Amino acid sequence: MQTFFRYNWMVREEWYRWCEELSEEELTQSRTGGVGSILHTLFHIVDVEWSWIRLLQGKTDFEENFDGYKSLNQVRKLDAEFRTEVENFVNNWDGSMENHLFYDTLPDGRTVTDTWGEVIRHVIAHEIHHIGQLSIWAREVGKKPVSANLIGQGLSSSSTKGAGLFNKESL
Fold first, then answer.
1. pTM greater than the 0.90 cutoff
2. Fold of 2-150
3. Inter-CA distances, 163 with 6, 8, 144, 150, 156, Å
4. 3-class SS at 120?
């Protein structure tokens, strides 16, 4: 699980660097699908990650909205502020937390019960989903997207960078 969070953070940082080459207009341009723009999608990824981690810990959810974060630097700053708490939670995860129960009250008043493991996997998949969306938008603006390759990144504690049967070019 920690490997996938490290992967998501690494890819997110690469997307931030990728975004530095776009104008503010291109970053905030309304696009088909998702939450609407490249920058808003990055904000949404940060918001959802931190919000779920806080909810699992019994803390209050994030109450900000995108209107206060309409520049790449503002989103990156927010990410840096939230990352410490998220990283601490992720780094302290152990198998005993997997089946802790999370009770979520829906807007209609119903309560849904999930395990912490399900919620954590949702957070991981949520970001990967939106990164795929960013890749499509990258091609629409005529730019090569950030690589989504996890292999050979040195993210697993038992692997070494570049080791393995395949390299990026062979995929």
1. no
2. Four Helix Bundle (Hemerythrin (Met), subunit A) (1.20.120)
3. 18, 20, 25, 12, 11
4. helix
